[in-house]
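User: Can you predict the 3D structure for this chain?
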Amino acid sequence: MLELKHVCKTFNPGTINEKAALQDVNLHLNPGDFVTVIGGNGAGKSTMLNMVAGVYPIDSGSVVIDGVDVTRLTEHKRARYIGRVFQDPMMGTAADMEIMENLAIAARRGKRRTLRWGFTSQERTEYREKLASFDLGLEDRLTAKVGLLSGGQRQALTLLMATLQRPKILLLDEHTAALDPKTAAKVLELTDRIVSENALTTLMVTHNMKDAITHGNRLIMMHNGHIIYDVSGEEKKKLTVEALIEKFAQTSGQDFANDRALLS
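Assistant: Here is the predicted structure, written as C-alpha cells:
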C-alpha cells in the first residue's frame, strides 16, 4: 500500500546549515499495516511523513501509494490518497465552523461541489452515530463551533474527519503529544478502533516508546535519516522499553538521547 524506494532528502544543501534528513530510506507497507515510528530528535520521523504527504519534494527516489507513483504529484493532488492528523489539535479543522460543517467538508473531499444543501438529514444521523461511539459527548454538539472544543475532543474529531473517506494511508504525526496522559490514552484507543474497523494502512510517529510498542503490528526506529530497526509480529509484542533503548544503542553505536521519549 506504501512503498518508499531509495528516498533521500537534504535541507539547505551546500550551506553551513546543510542537513541530510533522509538517507536512502526504503520502506514497504502491506495493506492494513499499522506501523509506529520512533527515534531521537532529528532522526527523520516527521520528514518521512512529510515526504509521503508531498509537503516537500524528495531529492531522489520514489513514493508509491497503492501502486500509483505519486513522487511528482503536488501535496494537494496527493491528498486524495492520504488522511493526516497533526500534533497540534488546532490543525486539521476549521475552528469557526460547526462540527457538522467540518464533517460534511471532510466527507466531500475529492468530490464535485454543487449548490445543494451542505448536508442531509441522513448525514446528520450518520455523524451522530459515529460521534456517539467516541463517548465524548460530541453527538449532542453538532452545531457547536469546533474552536470551543477541548484538545482531546478536537483531535478525536480530526481523526474521524481524516478517515471518513477511508484513505489509502493514514499519517499520524505525534497526534497525542499535546494532550494530557488520560486524554492521549483515549485518543489512542479511538485510533486503534478506527484503524482496525477500516483496515487502514497507518504510519504513526510517536515519542512515547511504550505507545510505539503497544500499538500497531510493526515498529520501525530511525536515526540520522536511516531506518535502523524494523520489527513486527511476536518479536514486537515481546519488546520492552529497556530492550528498545538497548537495541538503539547496538544498531546506532550511540545512547538514546531524546528526553521526551525517555521521560514518557
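The first strand starts at residue 2 and ends at 11. The chain has ten helices and ten strands.
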